[in-house]
Fold:
Amino acid sequence: MREYNFGSGRPDPLSFPSEGLAEAAARVIADHGSKLVDYPEGKGYLPLREIAAMRFERSERKSLPVEDIALTSGSMQALQLLSEAYVKPGEIIVTESFTYGGSLGLFRRRQARLVGVPMDDHGMIMSELEATLKRLADQGTKPGFIYTIASHQNPTGSIMPVERREQLLEIARRYDVLVVDDHCYGDIIFDMDQAAPTLYTLDDSGTVVYIGSFSKILGPGVRQGYFAAPPSRMNQMLHNKVDGGTNMLASMIVAEYFKDHLWSHLAMVNRVMQERRDTMTASLAEHFGPLGPAVQWSNPPGGLFIWVKVPDDVDIAEAVRLAGSRGVVCPPGRAFSPEDEDVPYLRLAFGYPSVPDIRDGIPILADCVKAASGVRVEA
Structure:
């Protein structure tokens, strides 16, 4: 059976620069292979950290000291180190009312209590965040941190405006709460008019830890993420990094390739991703639009995801089951709920499937949604 995989945030397999990475691997192994008999330094391979710093400076127009950057095995390891450093079992993590299911799973394994803050089309609502922190403070409770995907939010695709980012930082400082700025989708952007500086860029008080990733622009199998933090927070996080060091061979190859190809690679990935987004939104309009005004979807200015609101009477679990039986893979909204509640949403990832798969898979998904709700489309 043909599969239409709208499930996970991966780039197009054809965008993976296999030939360029193979050539980079041959060069670095020939020139520097002897270094691989040593363990990586604690913060990871310096040339790749230098590329991360250069990438940040060009995107943010602000320098990021290389000594403030540490490489990790994907961005999830950075989040694991943060959780271990700042959250004890039973303590609270504040998140958006919908957020990445992988992060939620990690937090739950840490036995954290999750508190979601309501969102709108521009991300976390600041009045709601302040009310949440005040309520917790009145109870004598301080969260371990606030976790936000402010740019290309997963799953909603929203970008938090700069004014709201500044409010978030002011509120966090007032309540003395750490902010985790997960920026792993930040390079994938189609509408630069909606771009906003990272929370880490706006912060001058050590309130924010920044998480980045090379995996989202190459592939999750590369497992090359990183975080940036002031020295005191860096040391707290690295204290729990007992893996012997981030894979130096992978870091060497990625650094060798990106030293000459980072910006051209990003431009290519963004062209591909924008075409996929446009194809998916057009297909949703054609096949989900007839379900009526109760069905809505985001048109994200970047990232990898579209958030689809379906009618309240749709049995989401049944729609997902029916879709899976016909080869269409997508997660239900519940996977992104901090409260683990059934919600009338689907998240569609548009980066991995081909244009023909999007065009053929979306009408199947629409049929399954209709079948799970009893909705009849008028002729």
